[in-house]
Amino acid sequence: MLDFRNVGHAYNGTPSVSDVSFTVDEGEVVSLLGPSGCGKTTLLRLAAGLETPSKGQILLQNQIVSSPDHSLPPEKRGIGFMFQDYALFPHLSVIQNVLFGLKTRGSAAIARAMDTLAQTGIEDLADVYPHELSGGQQQRVALARALAPNPKVILLDEPYAGLDSRLRERIRDQMLHVLKAAGTAALMVTHDAEEAMFMSDRIVVLREGEIEQAGRPVNLYCQP
Ligand code: ADP
Ligand code: ADP
Predict the structure, then answer these.
(1) Which residue, judged by its Cα, is nearest atom 19 of ligand 2?
(2) CA 99, CA 135: separation in Å to the nearest integer?
(3) What is the per-residue pLDDT across 4-18, written as a single tens digit (0 to 9) for each?
(4) Does the C-beta of 36 come closer than 6 Å to ligand 2?
(5) What are phi and psi of 208, to 5 degrees?
(6) Whose CA is nearest to atom 4 of ligand 2?
(7) Cα 168 off chain centre by
(8) What is the ipTM of this complex?
(9) Average pLDDT of the residues in 163-189
(10) pTM (2 decimals)?
(11) Which end of the chain is more exposed for a tag (fewer CB within 10 A), N or C?
(12) Would you state the pLDDT for residue 101?
């Protein structure tokens, strides 16, 4: 589905990730785990097409979408992106936020947006504005907006960072359920090992821009 092959990247000559290879298979949730500065966000940005690799290739459904001399623009990748701060449009209602990501317009688009709001359990909030929502509700709008175009892969940057710890547990349960029900593969960034263990089919542990270990949660040794 999403395939990183020996990917390297640098910011103005300073390496950020080097020789990173891993895959996200159909329907899988894969976490990128590691301390601040280890290259997690850069890998998401590379997958999204917001950065170009200096080495290697990224493939999406067996097509090269990123290499040092070719980068398919973000909007042509069919990837959903959920930002850490949700990035909702404050002047648009919930349903208008979700419609924003859709290429179609009219009744089909509205039906799709309402379906996605139902999937994430917030269909009664369609006409509400972001400032009227709790953090958890905003998170679900952001998830609905990312899922509405029915992407093959969704990229999640620290999806629970803005939530308090009790809410986080409930939301991550719901979110996992939504992703699995939709069959959408996900690549998620976190610095929280427990969260990665709970959410992921596989975890890629990074250190200083390189993969330290990768595997299923039960097979990974995690430092306390
Ligand atoms: P993480 O998401 O794991 O915190 P990042 O991918 O943000 O890590 O950063 C990887 C490395 O690249 C770090 O050394 C960071 O300081 C550097 N870096 C990230 N973004 C930029 C940028 N826009 N310009 C220069 N260096 C950057
Ligand atoms: P995160 O914890 O999500 O990685 P950071 O606080 O590391 O976020 O970085 C926030 C923003 O600053 C990101 O957009 C990142 O690309 C940018 N950034 C990180 N390190 C650097 C750096 N050394 N120089 C310039 N920009 C950076």
Answers:
(1) 37
(2) 20
(3) 999 999 999 999 999
(4) yes
(5) 45, 50
(6) 41
(7) 16
(8) 0.71
(9) 87
(10) 0.87
(11) C
(12) 82
